[in-house]
């Protein structure tokens, strides 16, 4: 028995000269437009987006040690928030969660720190809620900037 290989199939030939064809089918490549559509769909359009589980993810640029708690700006990098607590022993993180829960009118237990416990760039997860959506969270944060 020997193996004969060609571009489209692999052929096994035995002593009896019987050929068994095993075709190999390669997956078709996606067009560039399809790839762009998929990547645009996955890319969040701002600092506030939905994660895989359907929770709301907020990218925060924390500024601890400020005089007051305030939302300073919303940009592509994240939501700038001043925190009235020092960045020591997680005090600023707990104050950030308390402040966000007061802005969004939800329980503190519905908000958790996902990434950045020791960094100024943080990701906050807001648990699934029927009353909260990306648009309502964005509007509440924007209204906090103006006040």
Automatic annotation (TrEMBL):
InterPro entries for this protein: DUF167, YggU-like_sf
GO cellular component: cytoplasm
Entry's transmembrane regions: none
Pfam families according to UniProt: DUF167 (PF02594)
Similarity annotation: Belongs to the UPF0235 family.
HAMAP family tied to this protein: UPF0235
The name this protein goes by in its record: Uncharacterized protein
